[in-house]
Amino acid sequence: MLIPVINRSHHPLPAYQTAHAAGMDVRANLTEPVTLKPLQRALIPTGLYMEIPVGYEVQVRPRSGLAYKHGIGIVNSPGTIDADYRGELKVLLVNLSAEDFIVQDGERIAQLVVARHETAEWQPVAELTETERGTGGYGSTGSR
């Protein structure tokens, strides 16, 4: 699949780091480092603009290494980039650790997963079909 992209950063395009990876690492495009204090969040620019095909989205997900080593996550994880968005891709990072974290220019800050999706319509009905689970909610499966 080819996705048209404008790269206004001085970094390489997002890329898969291994042959069977689902996500491509995306880099921060900064003129100066950004310090995230504990529980602080910030929109980090990437310099990327893309034209996602209709019927697809690009999911923005945390990088496991940043999460494990530094407590850095993404507030709206996974974030969704819709096919009709043409603005700059920015990543909403959050520092969930007790230490300051400095985001450097060119640092791999998130991963992007291209995913197909369906467009649904709601069908109002008076009742739903019965299932074994029924209305059992949080933690209800396997508890009998």
TrEMBL record:
Its EC number is 3.6.1.23. Keywords: Hydrolase, Magnesium, Metal-binding, Nucleotide metabolism. Pfam families: dUTPase (PF00692). It catalyses: dUTP + H2O = dUMP + diphosphate + H(+). The keyword RNA-binding does not apply. Its cofactor is Mg(2+). Substrate binds at residues 63-65, 76, 80-82. GO terms for biological process: dUMP biosynthetic process; dUTP catabolic process. Residues 12-142 form the dUTPase-like domain. The gene is dut. InterPro entries: dUTPase, dUTPase-like, dUTPase-like_sf, dUTPase_trimeric. This is Deoxyuridine 5'-triphosphate nucleotidohydrolase. One of its GO terms (molecular function) is dUTP diphosphatase activity. This enzyme is involved in nucleotide metabolism: it produces dUMP, the immediate precursor of thymidine nucleotides and it decreases the intracellular concentration of dUTP so that uracil cannot be incorporated into DNA. SUPFAM superfamilies: dUTPase-like (SSF51283). Pathway: Pyrimidine metabolism; dUMP biosynthesis; dUMP from dCTP (dUTP route): step 2/2. The keyword Metal-binding applies. Belongs to the dUTPase family.
